[in-house]
Specification:
alpha+beta; globular; 2 helices; about 25% helix
Length: about 80
């Protein structure tokens, strides 16, 4: 595992600038990150990814809208 330290407003780039992760803000023990990636690359929070995998293993048809709602951008505070 690569461990990096970043400040608010700083980014890291994965691949050939295909994915950019930017630290947007910090409030208490939560850090808000922004992720820029091409549409063909799926980006999920870990708990959502695990749910997708579990539903795939059981053969259930997942509802993409349930997962998409979890990924909607938050409005700026």
């Amino acid at each position: 595992m690569l461990i990096l330290t970043r400040r608010i407003g700083e980014s890291l780039v994965i691949g050939q600038r295909e994915i950019t992760i930017t630290i947007l803000s910090q409030k208490g023990n939560q850090i808000k990150v922004g992720i820029e990636a091409p549409k063909h690359i799926s980006v999920h929070r870990e708990e959502i990814y695990k749910r997708i995998q579990e539903e795939g293993d059981t053969g259930e048809a997942g509802n993409d809208q349930d997962f998409d709602q979890d990924l909607q951008p938050e409005s700026e505070d």
